[in-house]
TrEMBL record:
Domain of life: Bacteria
Organism: Campylobacter taeniopygiae
Name the record gives this protein: GTP-binding protein
Transmembrane segments: 7-29, 41-58
Keywords: Membrane, Transmembrane, Transmembrane helix
Amino acid sequence: MGNSFKTVLITYLVFILQWLIFLSCKKIYKGDKVDKAPYVILFWHGRLALMPFAFRYFRQKNKKAYVMISHHRDGEMIARIIKLFHLDTIRGSTSRGASAALRSAFKVLDEKDDIVITPDGPRGPYRSIADGAVLLAQKKNVKIRLLNYEAKHFWEFKSWDKMILPKPFTTLIYRLSEPLDISNLDKEEAKKKLLAFFKDIEELDSFKE
């Protein structure tokens, strides 16, 4: 995707739309901000729309967060938008282009910054944990934190990830979990633990009666 006028226009229109919706909403933040330790931070692909704003609250000053963005055709647009939020990126995923992406991620963690991954991205399966997310945390002996938001009123897209876009003037609950230690678990046990914790925090913040 080149630097065409159309591409730049769409990028800024999406960015402005995100800001307009976010500013109109009531925000509630739950969980402690990240500390100086490096983390692997996970959130579902379907929560991408307003997730960049979470880092304005939870991120430690002078600490970077590198979002892993795939080489999938939608990835370039996502990377451009994320850059507007002053977040850094690593291109590749834990499945496609994994080798180079993981090497870059290892370096980021060594520098005490955070790696941010959508473990079910870029194309699913829906609500699945990629092996690479577990491998990354275990190889570098760092803990995982789960990031999520729930909206009281939203539109849900008919996409594989069931992407939600909160409606203007609704209430948003952002939550960052406590650090999760998966160092002593095998791959499948770690995935089950992470899925269970994701389910727990979604239920905690659910607006369903």
